[in-house]
Specification:
alpha/beta; 4 domains; 5-stranded antiparallel sheet; 581 residues; TIM Barrel; Immunoglobulin-like; 8-stranded parallel barrel; elongated
Length: 581
């Protein structure tokens, strides 16, 4: 077996395999690379000694870290990772995504335990499971965004074999799998990359420290490192798409950006395999060039999260106006109408939260609606609240039903956050498991200091290091069988089914979406082809004139009579109705 490593900063490298050490030779065809061939098999532990250092470090491209980020790597037979079941091949424009965190989707917090719950998702009707990051991080429990080994899989979840079993089980159930990956930073502890090469640069800075080196000396190999990691998830595990965390934080001044390079490589792999692979960006830039095709001068990513839609929806239903919700608070229904027809609220408008103008308009006649994901809740929008409270903690089941209709019948690719479909009573809080006591203290104090600025007392902000914080965040799987959860779950299933059976609800024409609203009376109605949705968020019934008759009720949260002869529909308080021909 050939072992190889890029280590341009040292004059010698040795491979430690088991109890033996083997000197490595420079690869004459690849500057900075070291190679050696020795017999090895699946599971054998190994690492690299750089120069005269005493420490043996794990392989930057290692697929498994059985003892955590500071332990040795283990050889993995990648041929055994490919799923046996064929992928469902669902296109992004036909998708309904379901975001879940492996560590809290079940109390066990493993891939196998999550796979056992896939029948619930099949009955719900979603098409893809979006896994939050699964790369190794220090400790057992965490969100996963402080991962330190982008080619490996967190061992407590089940390691590479566990992920492979999960993907295979999902494919057998007819579900695609999307994986959240982080290229903009690595975690604060357990990161060995700086010892090997110039993976980071002080030329740029991010909220997490020095930036990944995407445009400085040595950046060709750094880009190849992250690009190869991304392709490995798609190629070796059969994963169907990637969600790219915070792409606005990728500092990259090169003419051909890393994201364009990644997009081209994924498109090439899709053509090679005949599978519909896709990339979904998280971006704070409100820049349509993120998903504009490369041939038209864009980055070529296939879709992006639309936080503006979330903020408008959340503000309209809750009335919250703190933080970034302030930009949407003056006229939340107008903001919601704008996002549903033009995608971004901030398209060159003033943002009081940022203290400047922000965003760029979307050409809605050339940009299909499936370039954007719409959602009422995500891990960020729940977990970054002081107490990790879900929408269900703030609004009635009726308003949760309204949120579901705006997402599932709306113009964008819908995404649900685990437990949302039954109005989970469990919070989803920020939790960590840092072994370093100084880092644990800094995280605890930093979070409490952050929320103290907004009036929260320290004791009101859960301690991220307290095991109870993670335990509170685990879903309660007894809830879906009880009321009012069971009723809301049935409503979600109904809406997902309507989206599947009514092509108008998957129409990519953003310019064809029609919205009317009454800010004072708190109702909004939108039309997609022959399907109309009327949302009444007010505490009293509303009568809305549709402008035509001949429509019938397809689904309603509360009992609603068919529109009268003049085309008016009477909607109960905090309720929603879907109508069609």
């Amino acid at each position: 077996m050939q072992f190889e490593v890029w280590a341009p900063l040292t004059d010698r490298v040795a491979l430690r395999l088991g109890q033996a050490e083997h000197g490595m030779e420079r690869d004459p065809g690849r500057p900075g690379w070291w190679v050696v061939r020795v017999p090895a098999g699946d599971g054998d532990r190994y690492g690299f000694r750089l120069g005269g250092a005493a420490e043996v470090r794990p392989d930057p491209r290692g697929r498994r870290l059985p003892d955590g980020p500071d332990g040795l790597s283990a050889v993995v037979d990648t041929a055994a990772l490919a799923p046996q079941a064929p992928p469902p091949g669902t296109r992004l424009q036909d998708a309904v995504l379901y975001e879940l965190h492996v560590g809290t989707f079940t109390p066990e917090g493993t891939f196998d335990a999550a796979a056992a719950r896939l029948p619930h998702l099949v009955r719900l009707g979603v098409t893809h499971v979006e896994l939050m990051p699964v790369c190794p991080f220090p400790g057992r429990h965490g969100w996963g965004y402080d991962g330190v080994a982008p080619w490996a899989v967190h061992e407590p979840y089940g390691g590479p074999a566990g992920l492979a079993r999960f993907v295979d089980a999902a494919h057998r159930a007819g579900l695609g799998v999307v994986l959240d990956v982080v290229h903009n930073h690595l975690g604060p502890t357990g990161n060995h990359l700086p010892a090997f090469g110039p993976y980071f640069t002080d030329a740029h800075h991010t909220p997490w420290g020095a930036a990944v080196n995407l445009d400085g000396p040595g950046s060709d190999e750094v880009r190849a490192y992250f690009l190869g990691s991304a392709l490995a998830w798609l190629r070796d595990y059969g994963i169907d798409g990637l969600r790219l965390d915070a792409v606005h934080a990728l500092a990259d001044g090169r003419a051909l950006t890393f994201l364009e390079e990644l997009s081209a490589a994924v498109d090439a792999l899709a053509a090679e395999t005949g599978r519909p692979l896709f990339l979904i960006a998280e971006s704070d830039a409100c820049d349509p060039r993120t998903t504009t095709p490369r041939a038209a001068g864009g980055l070529g990513l296939h879709a992006q999260w639309n936080d503006d839609f979330h903020h408008a929806l959340h503000g309209a239903l809750t009335g919250e106006s703190q933080g970034y919700y302030a930009d949407f608070a003056q006229a939340p229904f107008a903001a919601l109408a704008k996002t549903m027809t033009r995608a971004f609220f901030h398209d060159g408008t003033w943002s009081s939260f940022r203290g400047r103008t922000h965003g760029r308009p979307v050409d809605r006649r050339r940009t299909p609606a499936h370039r954007f994901l719409g959602y009422a809740q995500t891990h960020d929008q729940v977990g970054n609240r002081a107490q990790g409270d879900r929408l269900a903690a703030s609004v009635s089941p009726g308003l949760q039903a309204c949120a579901a209709a705006l997402v599932l019948a709306g113009p964008f690719v819908p995404m649900l956050f685990m437990g949302e479909e039954w109005g989970a009573g469990t919070p989803w809080q920020y939790f960590t498991d840092h072994p370093d006591p100084d880092l644990a203290r800094a995280v605890r104090e930093g979070r409490r200091r952050e929320f103290a600025a907004h009036g929260w007392r320290p004791e009101e902000v859960p301690d991220p290091q307290d095991p109870a914080t993670r335990e509170r965040s685990c879903l309660d799987w007894a809830e879906p069988e009880r009321q009012p959860h069971a009723r809301l779950l049935d409503w979600y299933r109904t809406l997902v089914a309507l989206r599947r059976t009514h092509p108008d609800l998957r129409d990519p024409d953003l310019a064809a979406v029609r919205v009317a609203y009454d800010e004072e009376r708190r109702w909004l109605t939108f039309r997609r082809g022959d399907v109309r949705v009327v949302v009444n968020a007010a505490a009293e019934p509303a009568t809305v004139a549709l402008g035509r008759n001949g429509v019938r009720v397809l689904a309603a949260w509360e009992e609603v009579p068919h529109p009268d002869a003049e085309g008016r529909v009477h909607v109960p308080a905090e309720s929603v109705v879907v109508l069609g021909p």
